[in-house]
Amino acid sequence: MRPPMPDHRPDSVPFWRHVRMFRRDILSTQPARLYRAKMAEVKLPFLHSVMVNTPDLVRLVLQDRPADFPKSERVREGLRLLLGDSVFVTNGETWARQRRMIDPAFEGGRLRDTFPAMWAAAEAAAARLEPGVQEVEEAMSHAAADVIFRTLFSIPIEDATATEVYRSFRAHQRSSPILNLAALIPLPGWAPRYFPRQTRETARHIRNLITELTAARMAAIRAGTAPDDLATKIMTTRDPVTGSTFTTAEMVDQVAIFFLAGHETSASALAWTLYLVAGHPEWQAQLRTEAQALRPHLGGSAPDFGILRQFPLIRDTFREALRLYPPVPMLVREATRRETFRGRRLGPGTQVIVSPWHMGRNERIWDAPHEFRPERWQQAQTRACAREAFIPFSAGPRVCTGAGFAMAEAVLILARILCEWELGTVAGRVPVPVAHMTVRAQEGIWLALQDRRAG
Ligand code: HEM
Q1: pTM score of the predicted model
Q2: Mind listing the pLDDT tens digit for each residue in 88-139?
Q3: In this structure, which long-range contacts are made by residues 187-191, counting pairs with CB atoms below 8 Å and at least 24 apart in sequence?
Q4: Domain architecture of the chain: domains with CATH
Q5: Is the CB of 79 under 6 A from ligand 1?
Q6: Whole-angstrom distance, CA of residue 80 vs CA of residue 18
Q7: What is the residue with the minimal CA distance to atom 20 of ligand 1?
Q8: Distance from the alpha carbon of residue 400 to the mean position of ligand 1, in angstroms
């Protein structure tokens, strides 16, 4: 089965049509030549944008000189209703202080402590599956949201506030297509920033709920009764430079991004992985054999974190899915000074786009870039390609805080599902990737599930 790709637009279309297509989905707006092109440029009276598509330029922007290519105000504006001043949108010293306080909570040792909560979420996700045809994007969203609530606040998704955050968040996304468009269509400076009333209301409602959770946790920390989870860890970590901790208001912004970045992305990657596995029955059989290492733990207490080492093929499969369907398809930065990229002059304010989608499928770098070949990850040559062009979690100092967390969570949930369930594709239900806030399937991802518990 060849992994589905988006439609590609012809090389040249009028600008107005481009914008209309863009509003629908940013992936199908891109011409197929971008899988080979080293750079693409759009230059209009109010917009100058380049997509950099070579490892050296990507490295320059993300790793060598990230301070010269910060996140733009536009990205911040599109997300500010929901995320306030969270680490995802800030720059400079504000951002650096936030990372110093957040990063320790996601280090290896803490992941080990978080593992029992991930396990409980994986068990619950497997228990919710039903035999028959099922839409798995929704199921994986539910599972990933459950992981976030359990690891951050020690509550399952069934908790009343957690359920309400999850439900409101979905309503927010439906009412707020602008959330992703604002980030990528650079509106001219004079254009009005408009959020529909419903979007403003759902954002306020979500933030009120998160404030309730965070304020209650602050009170528990002061009373000495707080559980030892990620929220407590982050809220009690002192910035080694300034000695300050997050206030409740600052923490609300961070919780909003953990929820948003942590559940949408993982859900997208998990659902695409399940689809790819369903389409490759022989590979799936090997994964199921590997997943049997979980059998003694089913229905019982969490295995040791080290069990993840027993799932190398599942890990490679997830990596291959991230290469083909990176949940965050494009990263947007802004040049702050004059630059010359491949002979083209960029002024301050030029949008610089790095595309995990195009780098992961770059025809100059990968063998059979559009094919699902998880076994490629066992080859040294792939590791070299990955160093150049595998950036689903970004790279450099702004690399995803949750990358290790996401890998652990995904491998565990996949192993837990594959241990007992057989997945098949459904005739006539080929998912078409579109980029909403993350890369999703236009009509969802439908799979036929068969319960293998009996044998
Ligand atoms: C498969 C799952 C995930 C993927 C593919 C992913 C991908 C990314 C990417 C590409 C960025 C950089 C965005 C940019 O620079 O514009 C990012 C940033 C971030 N991610 Fe993730 N992420 C995942 C899961 C998570 C999880 C589970 C968490 C936390 C619980 C998380 C928290 C964050 C945060 C806080 C940032 C902002 C970092 C900064 O700007 O300094 N992510 N993620």
Answers
A1: 0.94
A2: 999 999 999 999 999 999 998 889 999 999 999 999 999 999 999 999 999 9
A3: 187/74, 188/46, 188/47, 189/46
A4: 15-451 (1.10.630.10)
A5: no
A6: 26
A7: 400
A8: 4
